[in-house]
Design a protein that fits this description.
alpha+beta, D-amino Acid Aminotransferase, Chain A, domain 2, 23% helix, binds pyridoxal-5'-phosphate, D-amino Acid Aminotransferase, Chain A, domain 1, six-stranded mixed beta barrel, 2 domains
Length: 357
């Protein structure tokens, strides 16, 4: 499909963010976006790169009432030689369509997903920040725009991509975060939508996050929805625990997100001399193992959060400190290697990097 590039009027051109230390996460957006529509009987039509501006939506739109929405998150990096690299974008394309299927939305052809992102990023490449820990966050999403108040899959969808120059996801940067294990609310249940990257999962997570924040925590760690016993994941990160030289993470049982970063860590770790294991992690056993000194590090993995070390982990009345509140060696090594590959400082032995022409 041909992607039309509509002109950018002078009043839609914004000033670039000069002080990259002030970027934060997801606060600023570039000048342009991608928009493609899907209409019943026609399929995907009208692919265009256009100014980043508000949508005109009927207040009856399905997405506004029944949350028929999915999204993705990936990043573009500007290398020292000026090339622009995406990290494993085919994985995002594939997962987007898995989410689409679960939420009864049409699949976006992988080539359209990738080509659309590449063309948009190429046009906006001057927006990619270059300071350490910064990148261009890419947010593809799909919404149901039928102006009909009936609960059913829509006949009209918008697939769109917006771009945001970002710094570290957590205000503290690459420093340990404090996590509360949530033992009341749950995020996902077997048969639910936990594996789909859909807005509804996040809406239902807000209350737990807000209550944890009030108690001074950065994030909550979800337990399984049936027994509230096994570790699932954190907000927008999969979780890993280091038992000496072995790192352990929860298996993909259908209730957690299948993270691209999670997969990258599981692939990278053995090449760095670490063992990996995917298994159910019982929270009571985990706490006992931290107490006994068997668990030496914990970290989260996600595109936005990259590799984020855990400082304190609290469950019910007990708070345990990991790695003395410092960044552990395994966590640091994985962070350095992963970000090294993404930014071209370390050779990509895996074929993960895809350059934007
Ligand atoms: C996006 C996301 C992740 C991380 O996935 P990556 O592909 O590594 O960015 C983890 N958990 C949830 C709930 C997510 O939405």
């Amino acid at each position: 499909m041909e992607i039309t590039i509509t002109p950018l009027p002078a009043d839609k051109i914004k000033d670039k963010i000069k002080d990259q230390a002030q970027l934060g996460f997801g606060k600023y957006f570039t000048d342009r976006m991608l928009l493609v529509e899907w209409k019943a009987g026609q399929g995907w039509v009208d692919a265009r790169v256009k100014p980043h501006e508000p949508f005109q939506l009927d207040p009856a739109c399905a997405v506004l009432h029944y949350a028929q929405e999915i999204f993705e998150g990936l990043k573009a990096y500007k290398w020292d030689d000026g090339r622009v690299a995406l990290f494993r974008p085919e994985m995002n394309a594939r997962r987007f369509n898995q989410s689409a299927e679960r939420i009864c939305m049409p699949a976006v052809p992988e080539e359209l997903f990738l080509k659309g992102i590449e063309q948009l990023v190429a046009l906006e490449k001057d927006w990619i920040p270059t300071a350490p820990e910064t990148s261009l966050y890419i947010r593809p999403a799909m919404i149901a725009v039928d102006p009909v108040l009936g609960v059913k899959p829509s006949d009209h969808y918008y697939f769109f991509v917006i771009l945001s120059p970002v710094g570290a996801y957590y205000a503290a940067g690459f420093n340990p975060v404090n996590i509360l294990v949530e033992d009341r609310y749950v995020r996902a249940v077997p048969g639910g939508t936990g594996e789909a990257k859909t807005g509804g999962n996040y809406a239902s997570s807000l209350m737990a996050a807000q209550e944890a924040k009030k108690k001074g925590f950065d994030q909550v760690l979800w337990l399984d929805g049936r027994e509230r016993r096994y570790i699932e994941e954190v907000g927008a990160m999969n979780m890993f625990f280091a038992y000496g030289n072995k790192i352990v993470t929860a298996p993909l049982t259908g209730t957690i997100l299948s993270g691209v970063t999670r997969d990258s860590v599981l692939t990278l770790a053995p090449t760095l001399g670490y063992e990996v294991e995917e298994r159910l992690i019982d929270i009571a056993e985990l706490m006992a193992d931290i107490r006994a000194g068997k668990v030496t590090e914990a970290f989260g993995s996600g595109t936005a959060a990259v590799i984020t070390p855990v400082g304190k982990l609290c469950y019910k009345d007990e708070c345990l400190q990991l790695t003395g509140g410092r960044v552990g060696d395994i966590t640091q090594k994985l962070y350095d290697t992963l970000t090294g590959i993404q930014t071209g400082k370390i050779k990509d032995e895996f074929g993960w990097v895809r350059f934007v022409a």
